[in-house]
Amino acid sequence: MLEPLTYRLPITSFRMMDLNKLGEFDLIDLIAQRTPGGPGVLRGIGDDAAVLNAGNGQVCLWTVDTLLEGIHFDLAYYGPDDLGVKSLAVNVSDIAAMGGRPLYALLSLGLPSGVREDQVRLFMAGWDETARAYNVSLVGGDTVYSPQGWTVTVTVMGTCPKDRVVYRAGARVGDFIYVTGNLGSSAAGLYLLQHPAITCPEHVRLAVRQAHLRPVARVTAAVSLAESRLVTAMIDISDGLSSDVGHICTASGVGCEIYASHLPVSETVRECARYAQVDPLEWVLNGGEDYELLFTVRPDAAQEIEERLAVIGEQVSCIGRITPLGDGMRLVKGDDKTPLLPRGYDHFKGRGL
Ligand code: ADP
Ligand code: MG
Fold first, then answer.
1. Is the shortest distance between the CB of 31 and ligand 1 below 6 Å?
2. Cα(225)–Cα(28) distance, rounded to whole angstroms?
3. Are residues 139 and 181 in the same domain?
4. Of the candidates 144, 164, 184, which is a domain's last residue?
5. Can you give the pLDDT at residue 353?
6. What pLDDT, on the 0 to 100 scale, is given for residue 30?
7. 30, 48, 115, 262: which sits with the fewest CB atoms below 10 Å from its CB?
8. Which of 17, 30, 42, 45 is the pocket-test mutation for ligand 1 (most atoms within 8 Å of CB)?
9. How does pLDDT run across 9-50, given as a tens digit for each residue?
């Protein structure tokens, strides 16, 4: 006879875990400590995707992300088609962050009562459009009833030559820190969606809204960066620049300086911030969900990287440099250097759980 599950749990499991003090990343560490890798695991927990030896000099990259109604999205302003786009794009972005190309996806859909067929069709229209754009095939999944809102869990598998995978852990003191595209657009979009009374020009509203609802994964830039073999560390910006540069620093055992004046902010986001009367720096540093690539490069390779991305029409900005671990993470504003705190999104911290 099976013992009741509770009898077999260690006594500590009965303690209420202080989730908001522990935070998302300490929780992941707690899980990671208990989970050794297996044969062929080149990187398990701790990067944007797991890296598994696939033979013939190739690796399999494997990632999963969940979007929950009420946490990641609100159907008051997300169309099901936006959800179809975003749920796939954010996973593709994690494959890109390793330097890989996406290949296959699994889709697990939890749907609450009241969902109509046309909403599911719309979701799939958004999904299909995104799958075509990134050449991803949907090869399986799961469909279940959800008592509390939509849950969308997507797994994407991708590939990369083994010697081109870019990890979070390779940044070295002196490396330059780069980011693709512009930052803060997604947070600006979310702000306007949550504050519909703010007046602002329609083209501004539409642009930032689109950035939030339908992010673009930077696969072309990522593959080019990986091919160069000049990138020492890379991550995609999902939680927010301050947290994601923190992930590179922690994994690499280094510190960093980020130059506020070098951060790429579009005129659209600046205009949006003026109408919203907020400092766009907050969106840029801590807003997250930009899905741009954040990467580090040795100084002597910087020019080659900039030229390489210019050729394929990808915008890139040098926003800082890697410093010794003891210096911590700092934000440089004029002559001022202040600690850069990882204040991007955390699922548990500050929720009063
Ligand atoms: P990202 O923002 O790139 O999607 P996350 O911050 O969600 O990455 O996760 C960081 C790392 O922790 C990843 O390697 C992820 O696979 C791993 N991870 C997160 N949650 C779990 C879990 N419950 N079990 C095992 N690994 C996890
Ligand atoms: Mg990521």
1. yes
2. 28
3. no
4. 164
5. 54
6. 84
7. 30
8. 45
9. 343 443 445 777 788 888 888 888 866 678 899 999 999 999
Tell whether 222 and 321 lie within a shared domain: yes
Give strand ranges (E) for the chain: 41-43, 50-55, 58-68, 101-111, 137-145, 151-161, 176-180, 231-236, 255-259, 293-297, 316-323, 329-333, 336-339
Regarding whether 150 and 104 lie in a shared domain, the answer is yes
**Is the C-beta atom of 41 inside 6 A of ligand 1?**
no
Q: Which of the listed residues 28, 41, 87, 155 should we mutate to test ligand 1's pocket, taking the one with most ligand atoms within 8 A of CB?
A: 28
Does ligand 1 lie within 6 Å of residue 238's CB atom?
yes
Ligand 1 centre to CA of 94 (Å) is 11
Q: What is the pLDDT of residue 351?
A: 58
Q: What is the C-alpha separation between 291 and 276, in angstroms, rounded?
A: 23
pLDDT of 163 reads 98
| Ligand that comes closest to the CA of residue 72 | 1
Based on the fold, state whether residues 200 and 283 are members of the same structural domain: yes
Residues 6+ apart with CB under 8 A from 139: 104, 105, 106
> Tell me, what's the pLDDT at 20?
75
Longest CA–CA span in the chain (Å) reads: 70
Number of domains in the chain: 2
Give the CATH number for residue 98. Answer: 3.30.1330.10
Whether residues 200 and 307 share a domain: the answer is: yes
Low-confidence ranges of the chain (pLDDT < 70): 1-17, 34-36, 350-353
Are the CB atoms for 238 and 96 separated by under 8 Å?
A: no
pTM, entire model = 0.93
